[in-house]
Amino acid sequence: MLNELNKYLFKFDESEFCDTNTKEKITSYKYIIEPIITNINSWLDFRKFRNNVLAHNLRIDLNNFKSVLVSNELHKYNAPESTVDLLTLFEFSHSITKITNEMFLIEYQEAKAIIDGFDNPKKCLTTPEDGQNRVANVLAEVNKRIYEYNERIKNLKQST
After folding, report:
1. pTM of the predicted structure, to 2 decimals
2. N or C end of the chain: which has fewer CB within 10 A?
């Protein structure tokens, strides 16, 4: 999320296509979320952790860096580590999302109207409820499969 903010939104206000009102809105937005960004960035190895652990953990690079999962180096990252860290990061991310949605609702609606006008628009979730319903449906299926798995294991144990 931070990459996208830095690469797209925070650069847009410097472009020739950005009007004065939008520049002011982006400047205000940056100011409002700055304490959140500062707190996220206090995990100094967060980006490195994302790249080496979450995104590319099976790569061996030119320096013969091995996956942190086999090198036992995971503890060296200054990145979210505990459940509390992860919940904090989630809350920060959720807050940025809510603030973005509120501040840029009109721009979102305008962009969505353009996308909806395409001949073959991608099916996208349009409301938080759509997202919640999708998650609930997928997790219901996952829970059903977990139950089925546990039943198979239980039956295997009983048959031996």
Report:
1. 0.61
2. C
CB 67 within 8 A of CB 55: no
The residues, any chain, with a CB within 8 Å of residue 22's CB and separated by 6 or more, are 12, 13
Neighbours of 126 (CB within 10 A): 11
Ramachandran region, residue 72 (left: φ > 0; alpha: ψ -120 to 50; beta: rest): left
Q: Rounded distance, CA 129 to CA 150, Å?
A: 31
What value does the CA radius of gyration of the chain take, rounded to a whole number of Å? 22
Percentages helix, strand, coil for the chain (3-state, rounded to 5) are 70, 0, 30
- Alpha-carbon gap, residue 144 to 118, rounded angstroms: 37
The widest CA-to-CA distance across the chain, in whole angstroms, is: 74
Residue with tokens 């580590």: 81
For the stretch 14-60, pLDDT in tens is 667 768 888 888 889 999 999 999 999 999 988 888 887 777 777 66
71 is written with which tokens?
């090198």
User: From residue 112, how far is each of 18, 55, 59 by CA, in Å?
Assistant: 19, 29, 38
